[in-house]
Amino acid sequence: MPNHNFHGSPYHYVPTEGVAITFIVLFGLSTLIHAAQAISYRMWWLIPTACLCGILEVMGWSARLWSSFSPSLSSPFEMQITATILGPTPLLAANFVIFGIIIQRLGPQYSRLSPKWYTIVFCTCDVISLVVQGVGGGKAAVAAGNDMDPTPGGHIMLGGICFQLLTITVYALCAMEYFIRLSRDMPIAGRQIKSNAQHMTPRMLLMIAGLVFSTLCLLIRAVYRTIELSDGWNGRIISTQVFFNVLDGAMVTLAFYSLNLAHPGTLLGRASRLRPDMDVDAEKKSNSSSA
Q1: Under a CB-based contact definition with an 8 Å cutoff, are residues 85 and 157 in contact?
Q2: Which residues of the chain have a pLDDT value below 70?
Q3: Residue 72 is assigned to a structural domain of this protein
Q4: Owning domain of residue 213
Q5: CATH code at 54?
Q6: Is 2 helix (H, G, I), strand (E, B) or coil?
Q7: Where found in the cell (predicted)?
Q8: DSSP letter for each residue of 143-207
Q9: What's the pTM value of the predicted model, to 2 decimals?
Q10: 114 in the Ramachandran plot: left (φ > 0), alpha (ψ -120 to 50) or beta?
């Protein structure tokens, strides 16, 4: 339970040991599964995305476990700020790559951007968000750990998380438009129509459902983080442990496991190993040559 009157802790409460252990186990297990799936399907891009997310989350929650024993220490507090603020960003990049593959499979003529440019644009925005949040998180963590004002670093973090929230929102709107156009067979004017595009299948529907659920969880987490940082370092939101556990830890956990269950290697098969900008004809040639 959070203790708002606890003095000496930069959290304004003592992190709960059992909660920290639970998330360490959950993220650790999912990370191992993601690594095994990446190796099994030879989808190496999942290592610097999904697996990196899991490693950062394990680091962050390990630091919170450390703080549950030594709540006044600055080192674990600084570590958990940086790790938990950065953790979901690589996972979001994985979502962008998967969506690019889906576009290539179902028909890029319904998309305003090519699969290649979806990956480039949104992953670039993701990297910018990662850098800004990392700089702000580090600055705020050091300041808070040394009993200095963390507000300047917090403002930088807020800028990074707001940019990430904007990126997720634009990505979601683009995806929504794509699936509406796909369902109504309304290609973008002037786009070449691919006659060999794949039809919607139950596996593809499950992949899309998993991607939507993962994105929704990350969106909820980004909204929470934006409100949390806007409320200030001494605000009620950042000082209430249950908000962080549910709206950050649980949301990222759900997003993380959703891609274990609705995995592109399982649901999209060999084509999911391709770059999002590769043509479907190239996929067929690859499959026929390996047969």
Answers
A1: yes
A2: 1-8, 145, 192-197, 270-291
A3: yes
A4: 17-189+197-276
A5: 1.20.1070
A6: coil
A7: Membrane
A8: HHHTTS--HHHHHHHHHHHHHHHHHHHHHHHHHHHHHHHHHHT-PPTTPPP-TTPPPP-HHHHHH
A9: 0.86
A10: beta
